[in-house]
Amino acid sequence: MLEKEKREWVWETLNREEQKMEKFSERSAHKIPYTTRDGVHDDRSDDENIAWWTNGFWGGMMWQLYALTGKVQYRQIAEENERRLDPVLMNYNGLDHDNGFRWLPTAVADYRVTKNPQSKNRGLLAAGNLAGRYNSAGKFIRAWNDWEGNTDDHRGWAIIDCMMNLPLLYWASEETGDPRFRQIAVNHADTAAENFIRPDGSVHHIVEFDFEKGGMRKSYGGQGCGVGSSWTRGQAWGLYGFTLSYLHTKAPLYLQSAQKIADYFVTNIPENGLIPVDFCQPREVSWEDSTAAAIAACGLIELAKTEEKKEADRDYTEKEEKDRECCRGSLYIRAALRLLKTLAARRVNWNDEEDDLLTRCTAAYHDAEHEYSIIYGDYYFLEALMKLSGKELFIW
């Protein structure tokens, strides 16, 4: 997939990242971080925050580093992260559509590597709860529970992020032989393909469905700048999420959906290669979201691999060989490398005395705080490099 010079850049960057992470993983070994404060990881493992939706990514980073290096300390940190999430499995209000984000990088990753039966049990419990959120009338997985003090009725709400959690259901079906998990994942993916993707390839963040009769009622701006805008992390979730559903099912609809979103994303990458919070944000707003770049890079790499496999099965004339340089797969891998190289050069903190890695990450356009370190940005930057190196532990 990559020429020698690009492979060398991947390994140089990956080794540089591992050297930094070896240091800060020791400092943060008993934490479950979300962000940093003054260069030091915070900790979301206390009783109040243990159910936070990002609490699987730290363990996922450690499993990726274990796959890369074989160093036992990374495995031990990942296993501790996994165990500390156990109370969440007994907390109804702590469970939602993000079960995949919590237990795919922890319990399921552990089970893939070690065949630990306790890890399998955790993964299946999380999958069972996720399947239980399925609305059969609307054929979607409900995003959030209602909570005290919130006036919104979430019974019909689904979000594009959930596409990334469907692999937990695909895994559960493969592991148990029970088709129900896969059926729910496919039904949700079909509904998302029909209702979340706009004609230009951009996606809605939140769609409200009629929870009794089915059918789309309306969309919400969610974490983007407004209704009808293009929240970049949502584009990345959709790009990568539909790609993953294609890898699990080989359904052409999901590949077409992923390509449509990918084409839109690539077309809208700014000239400087830095991704804004929303592709539709006002020109005077310069806020970035580096997490969207890292996530999109992962999806683009997988799409490029898919195209490469298709091309390998064909015989090409001399003219067609030249044309292959402009094929979709080549465009995708070039875009992914551009995103990653820009991040590495301009948005990665390489100071190994500080715990943050990816900088200028933003959770939501209308939040009070913007452009700070976020753990899933760090995770997907590492995962993208692992994909390119051929050493990735595939956890989705």
Describe this structure in words.
Helix 1 runs antiparallel to helix 13 and helix 9 crosses helix 10. The protein is 52% helix and 5% strand. The strands form 3 sheets. It has a 3-stranded antiparallel β-sheet, with no helix packed on it. The protein is built from 13 helices and 7 strands. The chain is globular, with a radius of gyration of 20 Å.
Beta-strand residue percentage: 5-15%
Structural class: mainly alpha
- SS field, number of helical segments: 13
The level of helicity is: 40-55%
Write the layout of secondary structure elements.
Layout: H1 4-27, E1 36-37, E2 40-41, H2 57-69, H3 72-84, H4 99-114, H5 117-131, E3 134-135, E4 140-141, E5 157-159, H6 166-176, H7 179-195, E6 206-209, E7 216-220, H8 232-249, H9 252-267, H10 290-312, H11 318-323, H12 328-346, H13 375-389
Antiparallel strand pairs: 1-2, 3-4, 5-6, 6-7
Structure keywords:
396 residues; mainly alpha; three-stranded antiparallel β-sheet; 13 helices; 7 strands; 5% strand
Structure at a glance:
With 396 residues, this protein is mainly alpha-helical.
